[in-house]
């Protein structure tokens, strides 16, 4: 049952060199640079996003993901979910308003996979980049690179996927849209949504906790994905695989790496999910086709390169 979580709100990514990272996320991906805060963190957003930011880059010695945040309906929902998380046995950290520029009070907790998540109800809304709220044009003329429209989801690797799924289902109200089942009947992967999207976060079973597989950004068309592939080649950016199609979610996709080794995805299309839909099931022995529908084979990098 839905509990008032609206959508993914932001992700904070660790990068080794902030200047190189900006050239990647701003100039190649096409995210809009919003500002830099007193800690040196850089805030960015996709051009269609109404909130002030959706991606935060933090320079660090080790790449990866610090946390992923979700927006909830209002402050009452935030308070209720805070109590529900505590009652479920989660340790909840309260982060004051303003710790992220323009963002209200946040509550942070760890999933059984070892990843940090947070919820918030308020964030400054600056509107779609370069477009009026009245009689807007179709798109801004000054977009760069791949012209990423929005931050869409993360894929995360860690242990205890089943317990993490139960937490997201029972406390946060996420639906299971798709899953991978191993030959023993265990859930090896869970693709979860709080919306109509194919997934707002996904988890794959892995012995090492807290691992970051990729952050994903939405493009409008298959032609945009092919153009992204051209830009990856033009800029000698490290590519993982694609362009291709997923079996899971049926999105059209390409994967590549930022200069710090964090994997990114840009994709278009994909399935939709309503709360009355039964989850789509893939067998683990067919995982190659589930992930890369055309090749039907997983490359080694996709399985082993994590930050």
Automatic annotation (TrEMBL):
GO molecular function: catechol 2,3-dioxygenase activity; ferrous iron binding
InterPro entries: Catechol_2-3_dOase, Glyas_Bleomycin-R_OHBP_Dase, Glyas_Fos-R_dOase_dom, GlyoxalaseI/FosfomycinResist, VOC_core, Xdiol_ring_cleave_dOase_1/2, XylE-like_N
Pfam family, one: Glyoxalase
The VOC domain, residue ranges: 7-122, 150-269
PROSITE patterns: EXTRADIOL_DIOXYGENAS (PS00082), VOC (PS51819)
Cofactor(s) demanded: Fe(2+)
Gene3D superfamilies (UniProt xref): 2,3-Dihydroxybiphenyl 1,2-Dioxygenase, domain 1
Top enzyme class: oxidoreductase
Keywords associated with the record: Aromatic hydrocarbons catabolism, Dioxygenase, Iron, Metal-binding, Oxidoreductase, Repeat
Record bears the keyword Transcription: no
Presence of the UniProt keyword Oxidoreductase in the record: yes
Similarity field: Belongs to the extradiol ring-cleavage dioxygenase family.
Assembly: Homotetramer.
The protein's name in its UniProt record: Metapyrocatechase
Lineage: Bacteria, Pseudomonadati, Pseudomonadota, Gammaproteobacteria, Oceanospirillales
């Amino acid at each position: 049952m839905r509990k008032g979580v609206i959508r993914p709100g932001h992700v904070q990514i660790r990068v080794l060199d902030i200047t190189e990272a900006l050239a990647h996320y701003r100039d190649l991906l096409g995210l809009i640079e919003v500002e830099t805060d007193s800690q040196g963190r850089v805030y960015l957003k996709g051009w269609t996003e109404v909130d002030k930011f959706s991606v935060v880059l933090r320079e660090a010695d080790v790449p990866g993901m610090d946390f992923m945040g979700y927006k909830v309906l209002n402050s009452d929902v935030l308070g209720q979910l805070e109590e529900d998380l505590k009652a479920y046995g989660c340790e909840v950290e309260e982060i004051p308003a303003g710790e992220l520029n323009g963002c209200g009070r946040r509550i942070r907790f760890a999933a059984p996979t070892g990843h940090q998540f947070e919820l918030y109800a308020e964030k400054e809304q600056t509107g779609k980049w370069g477009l009026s709220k009245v009689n807007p044009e179709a798109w801004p003329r000054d977009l760069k690179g791949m012209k990423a429209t929005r931050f869409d989801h993360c894929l995360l690797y860690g242990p205890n996927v089943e317990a993490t799924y139960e937490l997201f289902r029972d406390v946060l109200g996420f639906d299971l849209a798709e899953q991978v089942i191993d030959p023993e009947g265990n859930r090896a992967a869970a693709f979860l949504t709080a919306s109509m999207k194919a997934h707002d976060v996904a988890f794959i079973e892995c012995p090492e906790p807290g691992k970051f597989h990729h952050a994903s950004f939405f493009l409008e068309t298959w032609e945009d994905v092919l153009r992204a592939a051209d830009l990856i080649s033009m800029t000698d950016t490290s590519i993982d695989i694609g362009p291709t199609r997923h079996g899971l979610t049926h999105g059209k996709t390409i994967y590549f790496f930022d200069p710090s080794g964090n994997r990114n995805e840009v994709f278009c299309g994909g399935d939709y999910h309503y709360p009355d839909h039964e989850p789509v099931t893939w067998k683990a022995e067919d995982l190659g086709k589930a992930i890369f529908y055309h090749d039907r084979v997983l490359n080694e990098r996709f399985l082993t390169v994590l930050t």
